[in-house]
Amino acid sequence: LFAALEIATGTVITDIRKSHTTDDFIAFLNKVNRNVPAELDVHVVLDNLSTHKTPKVHTWLLRHKRFHFHFTPTYGSWMNLVERWFSALTTNKLQRSAHTSVKALAADIEAWVATWNDNPRPFTWHRSADQILGKLARYCAAVTDNEYHGAST
């Protein structure tokens, strides 16, 4: 499942593919290109999967100047808000479903996405960057302190 989340509105563009090849990714980018108004730039936040960095994708980007790729740091997918949307899909639909075929699974996902897009909800942070970084700093300090003072795990 490929998904593009419009962070301002929460609307999602999806594409279900049998694989995650370069050609599949480019087909998804073409779908995004068709669905986003031509006057808008498209900023795409991606993980570091090699499929996203092939020469074929680079050539596609050269022909589509309004697209801008931004890669999350390795192991930093939590920064990618579409990951939060995938979590909502999993929690609210997939964990409560049983499917007898891939076709049934795909149809169920497509129906859930359509319902989501009927009333999309943008994701918002409930804490400031300073609060998040402060908590992280306190955690790192506690872990470091425990390691240096022989605390057992």
SSE layout and pairing:
Elements: E1 2-5, E2 12-15, H1 22-35, E3 42-46, H2 55-63, E4 67-71, H3 81-92, H4 102-118, H5 129-148
* Uncertain spans: none
Count of helical regions = 5
> What gross morphology would you assign?
globular
Element pattern in H and E: EEHEHEHHH
Q: How much of the sequence is in beta strands?
A: 5-15%
**What percentage of residues falls in helices of 4 or more residues?**
40-55%
Major sheet characteristics: 2 strands, antiparallel
Mean pLDDT: 87
Number of strands: 4
Note the gap between the termini: 39 Å
Radius of gyration: 19 Å
**Structural class from helices and strands?**
alpha+beta
Q: How are the strands ordered across the major sheet? A: 1-2
Primary descriptors:
two-stranded antiparallel sheet; 153 residues; alpha+beta; two-stranded parallel sheet; 4 strands
Offer a quick outline of the entry.
With 153 residues, the protein is an alpha+beta fold. The chain is 47% helix and 12% strand.
Descriptive report:
Helix 2 links the parallel strand 3 and strand 4. The relative contact order is 0.13. This protein is of the alpha+beta class and 153 residues long. The radius of gyration is 19 Å and the shape is globular. The mean pLDDT is 87. The chain is built from 5 helices and 4 strands. Helix content is 47%, strand content 12%. Strands 1-2 form a two-stranded antiparallel sheet. Strands 3-4 form a two-stranded parallel ribbon.
